[in-house]
Structure formats: structure tokens, C-alpha cells
Write a structure and sequence with these properties.
The chain is mainly alpha-helical. The chain folds into 3 domains: about 425 residues, Na+/H+ antiporter like fold (Up-down Bundle), CATH 1.20.1530; about 60 residues; about 45 residues. Strands 1-2 form a two-stranded antiparallel sheet. α6 runs antiparallel to α8 and α8 packs antiparallel against α11.
């Protein structure tokens, strides 16, 4: 199976050519991501723009995206890592709102594009409109959530956006399956068949994801070696995805369910070393995969254009802009009644004390419908020929329109999202994480209760040990109280000063051990061990 198609004039051939291209792509990813950091812009946007610009350079190797590499290699770990860090409590609490977007909006987008495509797109009928709608209905929340986390978008909104992006890949790909079958066979399955297929996919995918998750949970709990645990976690998304696909279910949904389950149970089966080291491994892996994905998106334009000959570049740009605007419009039309209906169900049937989101928050949810590599891979995966051997109608134009939607939504919506959030007054709406402060206080209070109770059962010679531990815990409690505003008896500036002095002390200690190493008084292994302890403290008390 070929995962990447290469079109290059380089003298190198074979594996050396492939190695050079991968190294070059990694270099571009690192450089463009650093540029995005410099301009305080989400890196997916810069990578897509950078890839698009690079695609016009004559000496840049052309790398055409193969859908297999997306669905079989890249997508499973990205879905798994996103699901793993998703809060199950928030996902479950917002499930109705997520479902309204991941299922309701997907169906609305597919139908909307199908009904209106023949008015805005030449040569399209209802069948091709269904295919195009199914291709562009799935969202990619990487850019949206990276912006939201940086400027403090309320967690209520980010939870819905992330949950939607986890689930709608499965519903969108199912819609594409039916749409392509309609074009190939000339008839669409009845509502009973579609409902049966949807129910089978949902139930079987959930079952497969849970079974795979429970098996991995069992084996991980028997292992105490962090390297082996991390290796198993890297294999887990592929096991879940391939199991789902082998059962003719949804590998996407199986992977999401497996990730949600293992993430929720991770505190029980992962060792301390696996938790500390595994997060760094996964963060690096997801960054590299996302980097490849977005820069490859930008590099695809020459391949998208080379199969279209009946339209001028100007006409294509107009069609792409019009269709992208229409897709954005469909989402904005849906989110307001969808939010109202979701809130009605949550209050009346689930008895959740949830008020209807304000219009600004609903608009931001509508404006974060960014498309990504799954949409383009779905478009490229369309069959080239029909059952009678004739070419698949408008296939090249569908791919171009999909690319246009991805580019417009990522760049236009991604760049305008921060000022919109600030203009609507949603930035930093949640302020301090009150749950975290409450949890820290509960931890200290539990420790104090134990120490004070245990001290009474020990002899007087051990009391100084307990007194010192109690003093340290009370100091931590005092610092937590000092951080909280509204207590006139404490000065919050003391806490900030404490953090600053502590950070300076760790910098001094880091310089001390580095000097010892440089004078050959300690070896590099000792240096790295002590540095690791200082780094953990720096991370623990990092200012957000």
C-alpha cells in the first residue's frame, strides 16, 4: 500500500528521496510553527498558509496526500489523544448539545448542500450535492481550541466544540458512505436501512471501543514499566480503529470511545512514570502529526487544480468563495435553533439546571466550524469511476471546493475568532479555576486531618516530625488562601512574591548543579535527575 505519492525532479531516488522529503517537511513544520509562535497565531493557520505558498515553488517536492495515510496512520492517534484528555464529566453533561451538532448539524449540512448546490454550482444535482455535503460536514477543532485555550474562552463552549469534533467524523463518514452508494447505484437506501445501519454503527462501535479499552486497562494495570506502558498506549488507537473497521463498524467512533474510557481510568492503571513521561511523548507526537497534516493540506493545491480544465482560475476562486460562504452560513443558521432545542431537552427531560447560552456564545460556536484534513481525505477517497466505467461526475471540482472550504474556514475564521471573542466579551470569562483551588484545599485539609490524628497515637519523640509536616501543610493552605481574593486579612501579593522568590531559588539551584557538572564534580546522569526535579517544580508553580 502506498501512503504518499511523490512527484519530484530530485536526482535522489528510492528510499533516499522519501527520507529527504520527510526531513524537509519536518523542517518546514518546525520553522512555520516557530513563526506562528512569534506572531502569536495558532500554528495550523500558519502551516496551511505556508504549505500553500511553498506549493508554488518549482523546486519544492510535490507530496500528494493519500487518504490511506490519513485514515489508517494519522487519524487514530489524533482522535485517541483528543479523547484521552477530554473530561468525561463535561462530555456526558453536554452530550445533547454535542449530539445536536455532531448528528443534527451534519444531516442539516448534507441536506442543505444537496438541495441548494445546483443553484450555486454548475453541473451539480441532488446526488452530487449529497456527496459534497457529506464531504464538508465534518469539523476539525484543532485551530479553534488552540485559540480558545490561549485567550480563555469559557470551558462550556470549548467542551461542546471538542466533543463535536470527536463525534462528527463518524457521522460524516457514514453520510458519505450512503451518498457515494446513491451515486454509484442510482438509489439511496430507505430510512429503515439507514436507521438500522446508524444504530449498528453506534452500538457496535461503542462496544468495540469499550472492550479494547478494558483489555488495555487490564494489561496496563499489570505493568509497572513506564516505557512499556507508553508503547501500549501508542498501539491502543490503532487496535481500536482497526477493530472497528474490521467489524464493518466505525473505527473513528471506536477509537474515540476507547480514548474516553482509558483517559477516564488513567489514574487507576498508569504508573507515575508513565503519566509523567507519557504526556510529553503524546504531546510531541500529536504536534508532529498535526504539523504534517496542516502543511500537507497547503501543499495539495497543485494536485487539486491539475485535474480541472473547464474553469479559469478566477471562476474557480469565485465558486470556492461562494460555496465556502454557503457552508459557513448553514452552520450559523443551525446553531441558534439547535441551541434552543438542546437547552429545552436538557432542562425538561434531563433536569439540568442549564440556562440558554447568550447569542454571542452561540455565534462563537457557529464560527468555529473549521474543516480539516478528514474532509480533504474524504474528497480524495471518492472513487474515480462509476459502476459502468464512466468517470465519477465532478470529482475534481468536489476536491477543489473541499480544499476551498478548509482554507477559508481555517484562515478566515481562525484569524477572526480572537477579536470576535474579545469583542463579544467572552475572553477570560471563567477567570480562576475554582474547582482546582477547591481540590487543592481539600487535599491539604485531608493531609492535616490525618497528621493531627496520627500525631496523637505516636510517642513524644516523633512529635517534632509531625509538627514539621503540619507546619508545611498549613503553610500551603495559607498560600492558597492568600491567592484567593476577597479576604481582607490576607495580601494576594504575598503569594505572587512567594512564587517569584521560589522561581529565583530554583534558577540558582539549577545554575549550581550545572557548575558542578562543568567542573566534573557530578556526572550528566546526576545533573539530569536533579534538573528533572527542578523542572517538575517549575511546571507545578508555572504562572498561567
Amino acid at each position: 500500500m502506498s501512503y504518499l505519492y511523490f512527484d519530484t525532479n530530485m536526482e535522489a531516488a528510492g528510499i533516499h528521496s522519501v527520507e529527504f522529503i520527510f526531513l524537509l517537511l519536518l523542517l518546514f513544520v518546525a520553522g512555520l510553527a516557530a513563526l506562528a509562535k512569534r506572531f502569536d497565531t495558532p500554528y495550523p493557520i500558519i502551516l496551511v498558509i505556508g504549505g500553500l505558498i511553498l506549493s508554488f515553488f518549482p523546486r519544492i517536492p510535490h507530496v500528494a496526500l493519500n487518504p490511506d495515510i490519513v485514515f489508517l496512520v494519522i487519524l487514530p492517534p489524533l482522535l485517541f489523544s483528543s479523547a484521552f484528555v477530554t473530561s468525561w464529566r463535561e462530555f456526558r453533561y453536554n452530550l445533547i448539545s454535542i449530539t445536536m451538532l455532531a448528528l443534527g448539524l451534519v444531516l442539516f449540512t448534507v441536506r442543505g448542500v444537496a438541495y441548494f448546490s445546483h443553484w450555486i454550482l454548475p453541473g451539480f444535482d441532488f446526488r452530487l450535492g449529497l456527496v459534497l455535503g457529506a464531504v464538508v460536514c465534518t469539523t476539525d477543532a484543532i485551530a479553534a481550541t488552540s485559540i480558545a485555550q490561549r485567550i480563555g474562552l469559557p470551558k462550556r463552549i470549548t467542551a461542546v466544540i471538542e466533543g463535536e469534533s470527536l463525534v462528527n467524523d463518524a457521522s460524516g463518514l457514514l453520510a458519505l458512505e450512503f451518498a457515494v452508494a446513491f451515486v454509484l447505484s442510482g438509489h439511496i437506501p430507505g430510512i429503515a436501512v439507514r436507521s438500522e445501519r446508524l444504530a449498528f454503527i453506534i452500538l457496535s462501535s461503542i462496544a468495540i471501543g469499550l472492550v479494547v479499552g478494558k483489555v488495555i486497562n487490564y494489561f496496563e494495570s499489570k505493568i509497572e514499566d513506564a516505557s512499556i506502558e507508553i508503547t501500549i498506549s501508542l498501539i491502543a488507537p490503532y487496535i481500536a480503529y482497526l477493530s472497528g473497521e474490521s467489524a464493518h463498524s466505525s473505527g473513528v467512533l471506536s477509537t474515540v470511545v476507547c480514548g474516553l474510557y482509558l483517559g477516564h481510568k488513567s489514574s487507576l492503571y498508569l504508573s507515575i512514570g508513565a503519566r509523567l513521561r507519557g504526556s510529553a511523548v503524546w504531546e510531541t507526537l500529536t504536534f508532529i502529526l498535526n504539523g504534517f497534516v496542516f502543511i500537507l493540506l497547503g501543499l495539495q493545491l497543485p494536485y487539486v487544480l491539475e485535474g480541472i480544465h473547464e474553469y479559469t482560475i478566477g471562476r474557480l476562486l469565485i465558486l470556492g468563495a461562494e460555496f465556502s460562504g454557503f457552508v459557513i452560513f448553514l452552520r450559523l443558521v443551525w446553531v441558534y435553533p439547535g441551541a434552543w432545542f438542546s437547552n429545552l431537552i436538557r432542562r425538561r427531560l434531563l433536569h439540568q439546571p442549564e440556562r440558554l447560552a447568550d447569542p454571542g456564545s452561540i455565534f462563537i460556536i457557529g464560527w468555529t466550524g473549521m474543516r480539516g484534513v478528514v474532509a480533504l481525505a474524504a474528497a480524495i477517497s471518492l472513487p474515480e469511476f462509476l459502476n459502468d466505467g464512466s468517470p465519477f461526475p465532478q470529482r475534481n471540482l468536489i476536491i477543489f471546493l473541499t480544499f476551498s472550504v478548509i482554507f477559508v474556514t481555517l484562515v478566515l475564521q481562525g484569524l477572526t475568532l480572537p477579536p470576535l471573542i474579545r469583542w463579544l466579551g467572552l475572553a477570560d470569562a471563567d477567570g480562576e479555576n475554582k474547582e482546582e483551588t477547591q481540590a487543592r484545599r481539600a487535599m491539604v485539609q485531608a493531609a492535616l486531618a490525618y497528621l493531627e490524628s496520627a500525631r496523637e497515637s505516636e510517642g513524644p519523640e516523633i512529635e517534632p516530625v509531625y509538627d514539621e509536616l503540619i507546619r508545611l501543610q498549613r503553610q500551603r493552605l495559607s498560600l492558597l488562601d492568600a491567592k484567593a481574593s476577597g479576604d481582607p486579612g490576607r495580601d494576594p501579593e504575598h503569594y505572587d512574591r512567594y512564587l517569584a522568590i521560589s522561581q529565583h531559588l530554583r534558577s540558582l539551584q539549577r545554575a549550581t548543579i550545572l557548575n558542578l557538572r562543568n567542573h566534573n564534580r557530578i556526572n550528566d546522569e546526576t545533573l539530569r535527575k536533579l534538573e528533572y526535579e527542578l523542572d517538575l517544580l517549575d511546571t507545578r508553580y508555572a504562572r498561567t
